[in-house]
Design goal:
It contains 19 helices and 17 strands. It is α/β, with parallel strands linked by helices. It has 2 domains: 207 residues, Rossmann fold (3-Layer(aba) Sandwich), CATH 3.40.50.10260; 280 residues, Ribokinase (UDP-N-acetylmuramoyl-L-alanine:D-glutamate ligase, 3-Layer(aba) Sandwich), CATH 3.40.1190.20. It has a 10-stranded mixed sheet with strand order 8-17-16-15-14-13-12-9-10-11, with helices on both faces. The longest helix is centred in the last third of the chain and has 20 residues. 53% of the residues are buried. It binds ligand NPW and potassium ion (K). Belongs to the NnrD/CARKD family. In the C-terminal section; belongs to the NnrD/CARKD family. Its EC number is 4.2.1.136, 5.1.99.6.
Length: 511
Protein backbone atom coordinates (compact mmCIF):
# COMPACT_ATOMS: atom_id res chain seq x y z
CA UNK A 1 0.00 0.00 0.00
CA UNK A 2 1.33 3.45 -0.79
CA UNK A 3 -1.44 5.41 0.93
CA UNK A 4 0.55 5.97 4.10
CA UNK A 5 1.13 9.60 4.93
CA UNK A 6 4.46 10.41 6.54
CA UNK A 7 5.12 13.47 8.66
CA UNK A 8 8.31 15.34 7.75
CA UNK A 9 9.98 13.77 10.80
CA UNK A 10 8.92 10.29 9.69
CA UNK A 11 10.03 11.06 6.13
CA UNK A 12 13.46 12.13 7.34
CA UNK A 13 13.66 8.87 9.30
CA UNK A 14 12.64 6.93 6.17
CA UNK A 15 15.41 8.74 4.24
CA UNK A 16 17.89 7.86 6.96
CA UNK A 17 16.86 4.18 7.08
CA UNK A 18 16.81 3.93 3.28
CA UNK A 19 20.32 5.37 3.07
CA UNK A 20 21.48 2.90 5.73
CA UNK A 21 19.82 -0.01 3.89
CA UNK A 22 20.92 1.01 0.41
CA UNK A 23 21.19 0.70 -2.50
CA UNK A 24 21.08 4.53 -2.68
CA UNK A 25 23.06 6.90 -0.51
CA UNK A 26 21.89 10.48 0.25
CA UNK A 27 23.13 12.02 -2.98
CA UNK A 28 21.77 8.99 -4.85
CA UNK A 29 18.27 9.64 -3.48
CA UNK A 30 18.66 13.34 -4.24
CA UNK A 31 19.66 12.64 -7.84
CA UNK A 32 16.59 10.44 -8.24
CA UNK A 33 14.37 13.09 -6.67
CA UNK A 34 15.75 15.75 -9.01
CA UNK A 35 15.37 13.44 -12.00
CA UNK A 36 11.70 12.87 -11.18
CA UNK A 37 11.09 16.62 -11.06
CA UNK A 38 13.06 17.31 -14.26
CA UNK A 39 10.99 14.67 -16.06
CA UNK A 40 7.76 16.37 -14.98
CA UNK A 41 9.05 19.78 -16.13
CA UNK A 42 10.11 18.42 -19.53
CA UNK A 43 6.84 16.54 -20.04
CA UNK A 44 4.49 19.28 -18.91
CA UNK A 45 6.31 22.46 -19.97
CA UNK A 46 8.37 21.46 -23.03
CA UNK A 47 8.32 25.01 -24.43
CA UNK A 48 9.14 26.89 -21.22
CA UNK A 49 12.16 29.13 -21.56
CA UNK A 50 13.92 29.85 -19.43
CA UNK A 51 13.20 27.59 -16.45
CA UNK A 52 13.95 29.47 -13.24
CA UNK A 53 15.07 27.14 -10.46
CA UNK A 54 14.94 28.76 -7.01
CA UNK A 55 17.23 26.94 -4.58
CA UNK A 56 17.17 27.17 -0.77
CA UNK A 57 19.98 26.24 1.65
CA UNK A 58 18.86 22.68 2.52
CA UNK A 59 18.26 19.44 0.69
CA UNK A 60 15.19 20.85 -1.03
CA UNK A 61 17.59 23.27 -2.69
CA UNK A 62 19.84 20.27 -3.39
CA UNK A 63 17.03 18.70 -5.42
CA UNK A 64 16.79 21.99 -7.28
CA UNK A 65 20.47 21.90 -8.31
CA UNK A 66 19.93 18.38 -9.70
CA UNK A 67 16.89 19.59 -11.67
CA UNK A 68 18.84 22.54 -13.08
CA UNK A 69 21.72 20.30 -14.14
CA UNK A 70 19.47 17.76 -15.83
CA UNK A 71 17.45 20.41 -17.65
CA UNK A 72 20.64 22.13 -18.82
CA UNK A 73 21.95 18.76 -20.04
CA UNK A 74 18.66 18.34 -21.94
CA UNK A 75 19.31 21.64 -23.73
CA UNK A 76 16.81 23.75 -21.76
CA UNK A 77 17.71 27.35 -20.94
CA UNK A 78 17.99 27.36 -17.13
CA UNK A 79 18.60 30.06 -14.54
CA UNK A 80 19.35 29.38 -10.85
CA UNK A 81 18.44 31.83 -8.09
CA UNK A 82 19.82 31.04 -4.69
CA UNK A 83 18.83 31.88 -1.12
CA UNK A 84 21.56 30.73 1.25
CA UNK A 85 24.40 28.35 0.50
CA UNK A 86 24.25 24.58 1.10
CA UNK A 87 26.14 23.45 4.18
CA UNK A 88 29.65 22.27 3.30
CA UNK A 89 29.83 18.50 2.91
CA UNK A 90 26.03 18.12 2.60
CA UNK A 91 24.34 16.25 -0.24
CA UNK A 92 23.01 19.60 -1.41
CA UNK A 93 26.58 20.93 -1.62
CA UNK A 94 27.53 17.94 -3.80
CA UNK A 95 24.51 18.57 -6.05
CA UNK A 96 25.42 22.28 -6.30
CA UNK A 97 29.02 21.44 -7.20
CA UNK A 98 27.82 19.09 -9.96
CA UNK A 99 25.56 21.75 -11.47
CA UNK A 100 27.10 23.71 -14.37
CA UNK A 101 24.62 26.60 -14.19
CA UNK A 102 26.01 29.72 -12.47
CA UNK A 103 23.89 30.66 -9.42
CA UNK A 104 22.58 34.18 -8.91
CA UNK A 105 21.17 35.66 -5.68
CA UNK A 106 17.41 35.29 -5.21
CA UNK A 107 17.22 38.99 -4.33
CA UNK A 108 17.95 39.70 -8.03
CA UNK A 109 15.24 37.30 -9.30
CA UNK A 110 13.80 38.77 -12.52
CA UNK A 111 11.67 36.38 -14.57
CA UNK A 112 9.91 37.04 -17.88
CA UNK A 113 6.57 36.03 -19.33
CA UNK A 114 6.72 32.53 -20.80
CA UNK A 115 9.14 31.18 -18.25
CA UNK A 116 8.33 28.80 -15.42
CA UNK A 117 9.47 28.50 -11.82
CA UNK A 118 10.79 25.40 -10.09
CA UNK A 119 10.38 26.04 -6.37
CA UNK A 120 13.23 24.32 -4.53
CA UNK A 121 13.48 26.86 -1.70
CA UNK A 122 12.09 24.96 1.29
CA UNK A 123 10.49 21.56 1.63
CA UNK A 124 10.16 19.23 4.58
CA UNK A 125 12.61 21.30 6.61
CA UNK A 126 10.58 24.53 6.62
CA UNK A 127 10.85 25.80 10.17
CA UNK A 128 9.49 29.35 10.15
CA UNK A 129 7.87 31.98 7.94
CA UNK A 130 9.60 32.63 4.65
CA UNK A 131 12.37 35.25 4.42
CA UNK A 132 11.74 38.37 2.40
CA UNK A 133 13.76 37.29 -0.66
CA UNK A 134 11.42 34.29 -0.96
CA UNK A 135 8.20 36.27 -0.50
CA UNK A 136 9.37 38.82 -3.07
CA UNK A 137 10.05 35.99 -5.52
CA UNK A 138 6.56 34.61 -4.87
CA UNK A 139 5.00 38.01 -5.54
CA UNK A 140 7.03 38.42 -8.73
CA UNK A 141 6.11 35.01 -10.08
CA UNK A 142 2.46 35.57 -9.19
CA UNK A 143 2.34 38.98 -10.88
CA UNK A 144 3.47 37.34 -14.14
CA UNK A 145 1.15 34.33 -13.64
CA UNK A 146 4.13 32.01 -14.07
CA UNK A 147 3.47 28.28 -13.70
CA UNK A 148 5.14 26.84 -10.60
CA UNK A 149 6.44 23.31 -10.13
CA UNK A 150 7.12 22.80 -6.42
CA UNK A 151 9.61 20.26 -5.14
CA UNK A 152 8.18 18.20 -2.28
CA UNK A 153 6.00 21.06 -0.98
CA UNK A 154 5.26 24.60 -2.11
CA UNK A 155 7.68 26.73 -0.06
CA UNK A 156 5.87 28.21 2.92
CA UNK A 157 3.56 25.20 3.43
CA UNK A 158 4.12 22.93 6.42
CA UNK A 159 4.32 19.27 5.51
CA UNK A 160 2.99 18.41 8.94
CA UNK A 161 -0.10 20.59 9.07
CA UNK A 162 -0.80 22.01 5.61
CA UNK A 163 -0.68 25.47 7.21
CA UNK A 164 1.20 28.41 5.74
CA UNK A 165 3.97 29.34 8.17
CA UNK A 166 3.78 33.11 8.05
CA UNK A 167 1.98 35.16 5.45
CA UNK A 168 2.97 33.72 2.10
CA UNK A 169 3.56 30.49 0.26
CA UNK A 170 3.95 29.48 -3.36
CA UNK A 171 0.78 28.36 -5.12
CA UNK A 172 2.02 25.51 -7.29
CA UNK A 173 0.49 24.08 -10.43
CA UNK A 174 2.24 20.79 -9.82
CA UNK A 175 3.95 19.49 -6.69
CA UNK A 176 6.31 16.56 -7.07
CA UNK A 177 6.81 14.70 -3.80
CA UNK A 178 8.76 11.60 -2.98
CA UNK A 179 8.06 8.11 -1.60
CA UNK A 180 4.85 9.03 0.27
CA UNK A 181 2.61 12.09 0.56
CA UNK A 182 2.72 14.13 3.76
CA UNK A 183 -0.33 15.28 5.76
CA UNK A 184 0.30 18.83 4.50
CA UNK A 185 -0.45 17.67 0.95
CA UNK A 186 -4.03 16.84 1.99
CA UNK A 187 -4.86 19.24 4.81
CA UNK A 188 -6.02 22.72 3.85
CA UNK A 189 -4.76 25.16 2.76
CA UNK A 190 -1.80 22.95 1.76
CA UNK A 191 -3.92 20.81 -0.54
CA UNK A 192 -5.01 23.81 -2.59
CA UNK A 193 -1.52 25.29 -2.73
CA UNK A 194 0.00 22.03 -4.03
CA UNK A 195 -2.02 21.93 -7.25
CA UNK A 196 -1.69 18.52 -8.87
CA UNK A 197 0.41 16.17 -6.76
CA UNK A 198 2.82 13.78 -8.47
CA UNK A 199 4.18 11.05 -6.22
CA UNK A 200 7.60 9.87 -7.40
CA UNK A 201 9.35 6.66 -6.39
CA UNK A 202 12.96 7.54 -5.58
CA UNK A 203 13.98 4.10 -4.37
CA UNK A 204 12.90 4.18 -0.73
CA UNK A 205 11.76 0.58 -0.17
CA UNK A 206 8.25 -0.15 1.12
CA UNK A 207 9.83 -2.18 3.92
CA UNK A 208 11.45 1.00 5.26
CA UNK A 209 8.08 2.74 5.34
CA UNK A 210 6.43 -0.29 6.96
CA UNK A 211 9.09 -0.34 9.66
CA UNK A 212 7.94 3.12 10.73
CA UNK A 213 4.48 1.64 11.46
CA UNK A 214 2.60 4.59 9.96
CA UNK A 215 -0.60 5.64 11.71
CA UNK A 216 -1.89 8.09 9.12
CA UNK A 217 -3.28 7.28 5.69
CA UNK A 218 -4.86 8.96 2.74
CA UNK A 219 -8.48 7.82 2.80
CA UNK A 220 -8.68 5.51 -0.20
CA UNK A 221 -10.70 2.31 -0.73
CA UNK A 222 -7.61 0.10 -0.24
CA UNK A 223 -7.76 1.10 3.42
CA UNK A 224 -11.19 -0.45 4.04
CA UNK A 225 -12.63 -2.16 0.97
CA UNK A 226 -11.70 -5.59 2.34
CA UNK A 227 -14.02 -4.88 5.26
CA UNK A 228 -16.90 -3.51 3.15
CA UNK A 229 -20.03 -5.54 3.89
CA UNK A 230 -21.35 -7.56 0.98
CA UNK A 231 -24.50 -9.58 1.68
CA UNK A 232 -24.08 -13.35 1.88
CA UNK A 233 -26.12 -15.56 -0.45
CA UNK A 234 -28.45 -16.50 2.40
CA UNK A 235 -29.01 -12.88 3.48
CA UNK A 236 -32.34 -11.81 4.86
CA UNK A 237 -33.11 -8.26 5.83
CA UNK A 238 -32.27 -8.42 9.52
CA UNK A 239 -29.04 -10.30 8.82
CA UNK A 240 -28.04 -7.21 6.86
CA UNK A 241 -28.41 -5.08 9.98
CA UNK A 242 -31.04 -2.73 11.32
CA UNK A 243 -30.40 0.98 11.75
CA UNK A 244 -32.53 3.25 13.93
CA UNK A 245 -32.60 6.96 13.07
CA UNK A 246 -34.12 9.50 15.46
CA UNK A 247 -36.40 12.09 13.94
CA UNK A 248 -36.89 15.60 15.25
CA UNK A 249 -40.29 17.24 15.79
CA UNK A 250 -42.91 18.02 13.11
CA UNK A 251 -40.97 20.88 11.51
CA UNK A 252 -37.54 19.17 11.46
CA UNK A 253 -38.13 15.63 10.24
CA UNK A 254 -36.37 15.82 6.86
CA UNK A 255 -32.84 15.41 8.22
CA UNK A 256 -33.66 12.04 9.80
CA UNK A 257 -35.27 10.80 6.60
CA UNK A 258 -32.16 11.74 4.63
CA UNK A 259 -30.03 9.81 7.13
CA UNK A 260 -32.40 6.87 7.03
CA UNK A 261 -32.40 6.68 3.25
CA UNK A 262 -28.60 6.86 3.19
CA UNK A 263 -28.36 4.07 5.78
CA UNK A 264 -30.61 1.92 3.61
CA UNK A 265 -28.61 2.67 0.45
CA UNK A 266 -25.40 1.85 2.33
CA UNK A 267 -26.83 -1.64 2.73
CA UNK A 268 -28.60 -1.83 6.10
CA UNK A 269 -31.28 -4.46 5.57
CA UNK A 270 -33.81 -2.54 7.64
CA UNK A 271 -34.03 1.06 8.74
CA UNK A 272 -36.50 2.49 11.25
CA UNK A 273 -37.19 6.17 11.78
CA UNK A 274 -37.87 6.71 15.48
CA UNK A 275 -40.31 9.56 15.56
CA UNK A 276 -41.87 11.66 18.30
CA UNK A 277 -45.63 11.14 18.48
CA UNK A 278 -46.39 14.59 17.09
CA UNK A 279 -44.26 13.97 13.98
CA UNK A 280 -45.60 10.49 13.18
CA UNK A 281 -48.05 11.72 10.60
CA UNK A 282 -45.60 13.82 8.67
CA UNK A 283 -42.99 11.05 8.72
CA UNK A 284 -45.58 8.47 7.64
CA UNK A 285 -46.52 10.65 4.69
CA UNK A 286 -42.92 10.60 3.44
CA UNK A 287 -41.67 7.09 4.07
CA UNK A 288 -42.06 3.90 2.08
CA UNK A 289 -39.24 1.35 2.40
CA UNK A 290 -38.11 2.91 5.67
CA UNK A 291 -40.06 1.76 8.74
CA UNK A 292 -41.54 4.11 11.28
CA UNK A 293 -41.98 3.73 15.02
CA UNK A 294 -43.12 6.11 17.71
CA UNK A 295 -40.37 6.89 20.18
CA UNK A 296 -40.46 9.77 22.64
CA UNK A 297 -38.75 8.54 25.76
CA UNK A 298 -35.82 6.44 26.89
CA UNK A 299 -38.35 3.73 27.77
CA UNK A 300 -39.61 3.77 24.18
CA UNK A 301 -36.04 3.45 22.98
CA UNK A 302 -35.31 0.54 25.30
CA UNK A 303 -38.45 -1.23 24.08
CA UNK A 304 -37.28 -0.76 20.51
CA UNK A 305 -33.86 -2.14 21.36
CA UNK A 306 -35.39 -5.12 23.16
CA UNK A 307 -37.93 -5.93 20.47
CA UNK A 308 -36.23 -5.07 17.21
CA UNK A 309 -32.53 -5.66 17.91
CA UNK A 310 -31.17 -2.60 16.09
CA UNK A 311 -27.47 -2.73 15.30
CA UNK A 312 -26.74 0.98 14.79
CA UNK A 313 -28.25 4.39 15.50
CA UNK A 314 -28.10 7.93 14.19
CA UNK A 315 -28.93 10.64 16.69
CA UNK A 316 -28.71 14.34 16.05
CA UNK A 317 -29.80 15.44 12.56
CA UNK A 318 -32.69 17.87 13.04
CA UNK A 319 -33.25 16.44 16.51
CA UNK A 320 -32.93 19.49 18.75
CA UNK A 321 -30.47 20.29 21.51
CA UNK A 322 -31.08 19.39 25.13
CA UNK A 323 -31.47 16.93 27.94
CA UNK A 324 -33.65 14.46 26.04
CA UNK A 325 -30.97 14.19 23.36
CA UNK A 326 -28.32 13.52 26.00
CA UNK A 327 -30.49 10.95 27.75
CA UNK A 328 -31.11 9.02 24.55
CA UNK A 329 -27.43 9.02 23.57
CA UNK A 330 -26.38 7.83 27.02
CA UNK A 331 -29.12 5.18 27.03
CA UNK A 332 -27.78 3.74 23.77
CA UNK A 333 -24.23 3.72 25.06
CA UNK A 334 -25.41 1.98 28.24
CA UNK A 335 -27.63 -0.52 26.46
CA UNK A 336 -25.08 -3.28 26.97
CA UNK A 337 -24.75 -2.60 30.67
CA UNK A 338 -26.76 -5.54 31.88
CA UNK A 339 -24.14 -8.07 30.87
CA UNK A 340 -23.58 -9.29 27.38
CA UNK A 341 -23.05 -6.82 24.56
CA UNK A 342 -26.26 -5.29 23.23
CA UNK A 343 -25.61 -6.16 19.60
CA UNK A 344 -25.52 -2.44 18.83
CA UNK A 345 -22.47 -1.87 16.67
CA UNK A 346 -22.42 1.85 17.11
CA UNK A 347 -24.06 5.20 17.65
CA UNK A 348 -23.45 7.99 15.16
CA UNK A 349 -23.77 11.27 17.02
CA UNK A 350 -24.13 14.19 14.66
CA UNK A 351 -25.20 17.85 14.68
CA UNK A 352 -27.58 18.54 17.64
CA UNK A 353 -26.48 15.27 19.18
CA UNK A 354 -22.98 16.71 19.54
CA UNK A 355 -24.08 20.18 20.57
CA UNK A 356 -26.28 18.71 23.33
CA UNK A 357 -23.16 17.70 25.22
CA UNK A 358 -21.59 21.16 25.03
CA UNK A 359 -21.90 21.78 28.78
CA UNK A 360 -21.29 18.25 29.98
CA UNK A 361 -19.01 16.42 27.58
CA UNK A 362 -17.54 14.32 30.39
CA UNK A 363 -20.81 12.38 30.78
CA UNK A 364 -20.54 11.29 27.16
CA UNK A 365 -16.86 10.44 27.35
CA UNK A 366 -17.42 8.37 30.51
CA UNK A 367 -20.26 6.45 28.89
CA UNK A 368 -18.06 5.42 25.97
CA UNK A 369 -15.69 3.78 28.45
CA UNK A 370 -18.30 1.60 30.16
CA UNK A 371 -17.99 -2.13 29.57
CA UNK A 372 -19.91 -3.31 26.49
CA UNK A 373 -20.65 0.26 25.37
CA UNK A 374 -21.38 0.39 21.64
CA UNK A 375 -18.81 2.34 19.64
CA UNK A 376 -19.41 6.06 19.34
CA UNK A 377 -18.79 7.89 16.07
CA UNK A 378 -18.99 11.68 16.20
CA UNK A 379 -19.20 13.74 13.03
CA UNK A 380 -18.56 17.38 13.99
CA UNK A 381 -17.91 20.19 11.58
CA UNK A 382 -15.60 22.92 12.82
CA UNK A 383 -18.23 24.75 14.90
CA UNK A 384 -19.53 21.58 16.55
CA UNK A 385 -15.99 20.41 17.22
CA UNK A 386 -15.24 23.66 19.08
CA UNK A 387 -18.38 23.24 21.19
CA UNK A 388 -17.29 19.86 22.52
CA UNK A 389 -13.52 20.30 22.50
CA UNK A 390 -13.05 24.03 23.01
CA UNK A 391 -9.53 23.81 24.43
CA UNK A 392 -8.31 21.52 21.65
CA UNK A 393 -9.98 23.67 18.98
CA UNK A 394 -8.32 26.81 20.36
CA UNK A 395 -4.80 25.33 20.36
CA UNK A 396 -3.17 27.01 17.38
CA UNK A 397 -0.13 24.75 17.57
CA UNK A 398 -2.22 21.73 16.53
CA UNK A 399 -3.09 20.71 12.98
CA UNK A 400 -6.59 19.54 12.13
CA UNK A 401 -5.22 16.00 12.27
CA UNK A 402 -3.67 16.52 15.70
CA UNK A 403 -6.89 18.10 16.97
CA UNK A 404 -8.96 15.19 15.77
CA UNK A 405 -6.50 12.77 17.37
CA UNK A 406 -6.67 14.53 20.71
CA UNK A 407 -10.47 14.61 20.56
CA UNK A 408 -10.81 10.93 19.61
CA UNK A 409 -8.59 9.90 22.46
CA UNK A 410 -10.42 12.06 24.99
CA UNK A 411 -13.86 10.95 23.83
CA UNK A 412 -12.88 7.33 23.25
CA UNK A 413 -14.75 7.72 19.98
CA UNK A 414 -14.10 7.69 16.28
CA UNK A 415 -14.08 11.36 15.33
CA UNK A 416 -14.97 12.40 11.80
CA UNK A 417 -13.81 16.01 11.77
CA UNK A 418 -15.62 17.31 8.71
CA UNK A 419 -14.66 19.94 6.17
CA UNK A 420 -13.19 20.02 2.69
CA UNK A 421 -10.31 18.02 4.24
CA UNK A 422 -12.26 15.64 6.47
CA UNK A 423 -10.13 13.75 8.98
CA UNK A 424 -11.21 10.42 10.46
CA UNK A 425 -9.48 9.29 13.63
CA UNK A 426 -9.87 6.29 15.95
CA UNK A 427 -9.26 6.51 19.71
CA UNK A 428 -5.95 4.67 19.24
CA UNK A 429 -4.72 7.40 16.89
CA UNK A 430 -5.19 5.56 13.59
CA UNK A 431 -6.10 8.31 11.13
CA UNK A 432 -7.22 8.88 7.56
CA UNK A 433 -7.33 12.19 5.72
CA UNK A 434 -9.86 12.42 2.94
CA UNK A 435 -8.79 13.76 -0.43
CA UNK A 436 -11.71 13.18 -2.80
CA UNK A 437 -14.09 15.83 -1.49
CA UNK A 438 -15.77 18.30 -3.80
CA UNK A 439 -17.31 21.71 -3.19
CA UNK A 440 -20.70 20.39 -4.34
CA UNK A 441 -20.95 18.54 -1.02
CA UNK A 442 -21.24 21.80 0.89
CA UNK A 443 -25.02 21.74 0.76
CA UNK A 444 -27.76 21.52 3.39
CA UNK A 445 -28.44 17.95 4.49
CA UNK A 446 -25.17 16.58 3.16
CA UNK A 447 -23.97 15.84 6.71
CA UNK A 448 -27.23 14.01 7.53
CA UNK A 449 -26.56 11.71 4.59
CA UNK A 450 -23.00 11.06 5.78
CA UNK A 451 -24.23 10.13 9.28
CA UNK A 452 -26.68 7.72 7.69
CA UNK A 453 -24.05 6.04 5.53
CA UNK A 454 -21.84 5.47 8.56
CA UNK A 455 -24.77 3.95 10.47
CA UNK A 456 -25.75 1.81 7.50
CA UNK A 457 -22.25 0.33 7.35
CA UNK A 458 -22.03 -0.07 11.13
CA UNK A 459 -25.39 -1.82 11.16
CA UNK A 460 -23.93 -4.47 8.88
CA UNK A 461 -21.07 -5.10 11.27
CA UNK A 462 -18.31 -3.18 9.50
CA UNK A 463 -15.43 -2.28 11.82
CA UNK A 464 -15.99 1.19 13.22
CA UNK A 465 -13.00 3.13 11.91
CA UNK A 466 -13.33 1.41 8.53
CA UNK A 467 -17.05 2.23 8.39
CA UNK A 468 -16.45 5.90 9.14
CA UNK A 469 -13.61 6.19 6.63
CA UNK A 470 -15.53 4.30 3.94
CA UNK A 471 -18.63 6.43 4.47
CA UNK A 472 -16.65 9.66 4.10
CA UNK A 473 -15.06 8.46 0.87
CA UNK A 474 -18.30 7.08 -0.62
CA UNK A 475 -20.21 10.25 0.28
CA UNK A 476 -17.51 12.46 -1.27
CA UNK A 477 -17.20 10.29 -4.36
CA UNK A 478 -20.95 10.32 -4.94
CA UNK A 479 -21.00 14.11 -4.63
CA UNK A 480 -17.92 14.61 -6.78
CA UNK A 481 -19.28 12.47 -9.59
CA UNK A 482 -22.73 14.08 -9.47
CA UNK A 483 -21.20 17.55 -9.65
CA UNK A 484 -23.11 20.79 -10.27
CA UNK A 485 -26.69 20.94 -9.07
CA UNK A 486 -26.16 18.40 -6.29
CA UNK A 487 -28.58 18.57 -3.38
CA UNK A 488 -28.55 16.22 -0.42
CA UNK A 489 -31.58 14.29 -1.73
CA UNK A 490 -29.45 13.24 -4.73
CA UNK A 491 -26.69 11.70 -2.66
CA UNK A 492 -28.30 8.37 -1.64
CA UNK A 493 -28.98 7.47 -5.27
CA UNK A 494 -25.63 8.88 -6.45
CA UNK A 495 -23.96 6.40 -4.09
CA UNK A 496 -25.23 3.43 -6.06
CA UNK A 497 -22.64 3.34 -8.88
CA UNK A 498 -19.89 4.08 -6.35
CA UNK A 499 -21.02 1.17 -4.19
CA UNK A 500 -21.29 -1.11 -7.20
CA UNK A 501 -17.67 -0.41 -8.17
CA UNK A 502 -16.48 -1.01 -4.62
CA UNK A 503 -18.35 -4.29 -4.30
CA UNK A 504 -16.98 -5.41 -7.67
CA UNK A 505 -13.46 -4.41 -6.60
CA UNK A 506 -13.83 -6.37 -3.38
CA UNK A 507 -15.16 -9.42 -5.20
CA UNK A 508 -12.41 -9.22 -7.84
CA UNK A 509 -9.85 -9.07 -5.05
CA UNK A 510 -11.32 -12.13 -3.37
CA UNK A 511 -11.04 -14.25 -6.55
N1 LIG B 1 18.23 12.35 1.75
C1 LIG B 1 17.18 13.08 1.98
O1 LIG B 1 16.93 13.43 3.13
C2 LIG B 1 16.35 13.51 0.86
C3 LIG B 1 15.64 14.70 0.94
N2 LIG B 1 15.07 15.23 -0.11
C4 LIG B 1 14.72 16.63 -0.13
O2 LIG B 1 15.15 17.24 1.05
C5 LIG B 1 14.15 18.10 1.57
C6 LIG B 1 14.30 18.25 3.02
O3 LIG B 1 15.56 18.77 3.22
P1 LIG B 1 15.96 19.54 4.54
O4 LIG B 1 15.61 18.70 5.70
O5 LIG B 1 17.35 19.95 4.38
O6 LIG B 1 14.95 20.76 4.57
P2 LIG B 1 14.74 22.01 3.58
O7 LIG B 1 13.28 22.10 3.31
O8 LIG B 1 15.63 21.99 2.43
O9 LIG B 1 15.09 23.29 4.52
C7 LIG B 1 16.09 23.20 5.49
C8 LIG B 1 16.96 24.42 5.49
O10 LIG B 1 16.21 25.60 5.33
C9 LIG B 1 16.33 26.40 6.51
N3 LIG B 1 15.01 27.00 6.73
C10 LIG B 1 13.87 26.36 6.93
N4 LIG B 1 12.83 27.23 6.94
C11 LIG B 1 13.39 28.45 6.72
C12 LIG B 1 12.83 29.73 6.60
N5 LIG B 1 11.51 29.95 6.68
N6 LIG B 1 13.67 30.76 6.40
C13 LIG B 1 14.98 30.56 6.30
N7 LIG B 1 15.57 29.35 6.38
C14 LIG B 1 14.77 28.30 6.60
C15 LIG B 1 16.76 25.47 7.56
O11 LIG B 1 17.37 26.19 8.56
P3 LIG B 1 17.06 25.91 10.12
O12 LIG B 1 15.59 25.73 10.27
O13 LIG B 1 17.78 24.64 10.41
O14 LIG B 1 17.57 27.08 10.82
C16 LIG B 1 17.68 24.56 6.79
O15 LIG B 1 18.90 25.20 6.54
C17 LIG B 1 12.88 17.45 1.16
O16 LIG B 1 11.84 18.39 1.16
C18 LIG B 1 13.24 16.93 -0.22
O17 LIG B 1 13.04 17.95 -1.16
C19 LIG B 1 15.14 14.52 -1.36
O18 LIG B 1 16.35 14.94 -1.96
C20 LIG B 1 15.17 13.04 -1.18
C21 LIG B 1 16.31 12.64 -0.34
K1 LIG C 1 9.70 23.64 -2.33
Amino acid sequence: MSNELLSPVEMAEADRLAIATGPFNGIGLMRRAGAAVAAVVLARYPAATPVHVLCGPGNNGGDGYVVARLLAEAGVDVAIWVSGKPRAGSDAAIAAAECPVAPRPLTAFAPDFGSIVVDALYGAGLSKSLPVDATNAIDFARSLLLPVVAIDLPSGVSGDTGAVLGEEAFRADITVTFARKKPGHLLLPGRELCGEIVLADIGIPDSVVNDLIPRTFENKPALWVGNLPVPATDAHKYKRGHAGVFSGGPSTTGAARLSALAAARAGAGAVTVLSPADAMQINAAHLTAIMLRRSDTVADLNNFIGERRPSAFVLGPGFGVGERTRDLALAILRAGRQGAASGIGGLVLDADGITSFRDEPASLFEATREPHAPALVMTPHEGEFARLFSDIAADKSLSKLAKARAAAQRANAVVVYKGADTVIVAPNGLAAINGNGAPWLATAGSGDVLAGIIAGLLAQGMAVFAAAAAAVWIHAEAGRRFGPGLIAEDLPLAMVPVLRELVEAKQADAI
